[in-house]
Structures are given as C-alpha cells and as structure tokens.
Amino acid sequence: MVEYTQRTDRPAMSEWIEQMAAYFESTEGMPLIAGRVLAFLLICDPPERTAAELSHALSASTGSISTNVRFLVRLGIVSKTTRQGREAALYRVEEHRWPELVSARMHRMVELESLIDSGLRMFSGQGERARRLRTVHEFYQWLSEEIPELWRRWERDSRRRS
Amino acid sequence: MVEYTQRTDRPAMSEWIEQMAAYFESTEGMPLIAGRVLAFLLICDPPERTAAELSHALSASTGSISTNVRFLVRLGIVSKTTRQGREAALYRVEEHRWPELVSARMHRMVELESLIDSGLRMFSGQGERARRLRTVHEFYQWLSEEIPELWRRWERDSRRRS
DNA sequence: TTATGGTTTCAGTGTCGAACGAAACCGATC
DNA sequence: GATCGGTTTCGTTCGACACTGAAACCATAA
C-alpha cells in the first residue's frame, strides 16, 4: 500500500495554491503548474520535496513537474539538492531570493529606456516627432535612477532588520 | 491613384517599431500589432492617424487594427477622437499617461502581498511553514510602502520640472 | 435616396505552448 | 548482473489566441 506524502491537506490549502498559481499566470505569464509547485513549496512541511512527491501532491504528470521544476530552478527561486546514497533529488524554495526576482522584473521594465533613447536620437531632428518621445524618455530617465536606489534601500533596510 | 499616407519611411524606422513591438510582447504579453501601433503613434507625423492609415502604414488587416486599437484605448495609452463633419476617427498616443501605466504594473506586482498575507494567517500555527511565508511577507510589506512613495516622488519631481 | 469612405463584427485558419503519458535513462541497492 | 525508484526526454493532444478577410454596419456627402 502506498503512503501518499501529504496531499494538499485541506481544501483551503489547495485553493490558496490555485490562487497563487493564477496570480503568477496572469501577471508573470508563468505556467500554472510552475505556480502550483512554487506555492506548494512555500507551505509544505517538511520544506524539501522530491519531484515524485510534487507530482502526487499536485496531481500533475511527472513530465510536467520535471519541466516546470527545471524552469523554477533556472529562475533561481527553487533549488535542487542531491545527496549521495539517495537517488531522489530534493527541491526547496529559496524564499530569500524573492526580492531579487522582483528586482529583476523591475529592471526589465526600465530596459525600455535604451530603445526610447535610440528612437530619440533617430528622430531628434523633427520637432513634433521628438516631443512625444522626449516626454516618455524623461520619465524613464527618472525611473532608471530611482529603481536601483530602491534596491539599495532594501539592502540597507533588510540588513538593519536582521 | 491612391496616396498612401507615409508608410514606415526608412527601414530603420520600421525596425525600431519591430523592436518596440517585440519588447512589449515579451515583457507585457501584448499582441505584436498592438505594440506596432503604439510605437508608430509615438513617432508618426502628424501624430493623429485613422485606423485605415494605421492599417496601411503597418500592413496589418483592418480587423486586427480595430481590435488592437480598441485594446490600447482601453489600456488608456491611446485616445480616439471624432469630429463632426468627419466620419473617420483619429487615434493618437497619450504619452503623458505612460507613467500611470508603469505605476499600475508595479502595483499589480505588489498585489501579491494580500495573498501571501492570507496564507500567513492560514498557517500561522505551524512554525516551519510560516517561516518561509514570513520572509516573503516582510519583503512585500516593505515594498508596498515604497511603491506608493515612489510615485508620490514622481508627482513631485515632474511638477517641479515643468 | 444612393454612393462613399471608414469601422466593427465574425467565422475560419494557423501557430504556439501547456500538459500529458509512455518510454528511455540513470544511480543506487541487492 | 538484475531490479527498483526516480527523473528526463519526446511525440502527441488539446486549447488559446493572434491574425485575416469578407460581410455587415454606420455616418456623412451628394
């Protein structure tokens, strides 16, 4: 008889997981299963799980778990640990990495600055064309100073807290 | 003989438009055509265009232009103006709205706080489970104070500039 | 009223990617 | 060696959605 390792206990728990997955799907474009794995790893006890356990707990195919877990590892929010004498790899969420991910997301937003910039150089001659671009550009110039500043502040504040 | 209203003049221009569209597709999940329309409206001269002109300039079907222009209008970054005595509506980019859009995007990121919060309440009993959630929660608590602050600063700085 | 741009609606097409499940693979144990 | 979990690879299915093009629609001008 198989001992299923703690399925998503109560309905409330699996509902919370679904909401998390839905959030990541809609705002980050993350596959549903990846979001479920991430959410589950945040609250499962013990915190380390094998791919097989994830597959059982979330009733997703082993194939899907494999690709999505790899996705999360590449993202940097989940880590894979192996031990000798134990064939199964263990996955756990690296929750302290969360701020880095959000930071990276914001930096990608600011990346648009360089594109706007090149457009501005390209059409600098024409007054009206440049006007609209300049308005957007001024904003990104401001933002691209503020965002790094924001994360320096986070470093400082979180260091102080601990 | 038909007078095409200024197709994407030089190859450099249409390439810039493609890069913009690609950016919005990859980081915002925006349809390619919507990104093209947005980019084109940022640099076209004169700045107001009819749907038919957009269709010509970007060689996209009128149907696609219709749906994507509506999408951009609903987003708030493009406006539609009609005049009496003129059946064609004119579209123009509302470049001063750009900061609002970026702000909205960031606020959606912060929305995760409430979900994490509810999870935290749900599992507050168990020590280990709550630990990971609390780490993430502390970050979002900090962030959800900083983000509104950031935009207050933008209001202030941009007012000063003008 | 009819004719003339222009715009929207809608059904159909093609593409992309999420998810599955079976087969292959890999390490460790017996 | 063979066996046994566990993991990855891979071909396939399925659904979503971007895009098209033609038909319907609408407002103005003749």
UniProtKB/TrEMBL annotation, chains A, B:
The keyword Transcription regulation applies. Keywords: DNA-binding, Transcription, Transcription regulation. Transmembrane segments: none annotated. GO terms for molecular function: DNA binding. InterPro entries: HTH-GbsR_regulator (IPR052362), WH-like_DNA-bd_sf (IPR036388), WH_DNA-bd_sf (IPR036390). Coiled coil: none annotated. The keyword Transcription applies. This is DNA-binding transcriptional regulator GbsR, MarR family. It comes from Actinopolyspora mzabensis.
